[in-house]
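Repro:
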Amino acid sequence: MSCASDSTGLYNCRDFPSLFALPGYIQASRALMIASIVFGTFGLVATLVGMQCSKIGGENYVLKGRIAAVGGVFFLLQGICTMIAVSWYAANITQEFFNQFYSGTKYEIGEGLYIGWASATLAICGGTCLLLACKGTATDNKVPYPYQPSSRNHVLSVMAPSQSVPSNYGRNAYV
């Protein structure tokens, strides 16, 4: 029971609602937000493992790219779950607010919903960027960088002397 008293000493008691007595859309929104947290955690771990600067996984950059792409998929799933949960909850709040025959407590859209929409949008954008950045390219299409500067301000050639470096600059052009 949840009881309250007023200034005259009268007690008003009502049954305390259980978490399982909540409406179905609130329970579904909670489940979607828990799934969103799990997807975000998996996405964060996969992205950290898949980064090229990470020592986990060795020097296999193809595998690291695929792991980072899986992290992008997890971030997309996180954003979609969050967007569905927040939008569904906001739609029900709006529907109850404008219903003249609804006798329960009428809530309004608050800051939490705006934060949810912003975080869902950022998660979807981040997952999309991560997927697009990790798209597979064949190693034949990669052009090796022909020169690598050393610490003594000399330029060392990585290519064999018989190969010519295609360039738009003359011999006296400096960068």
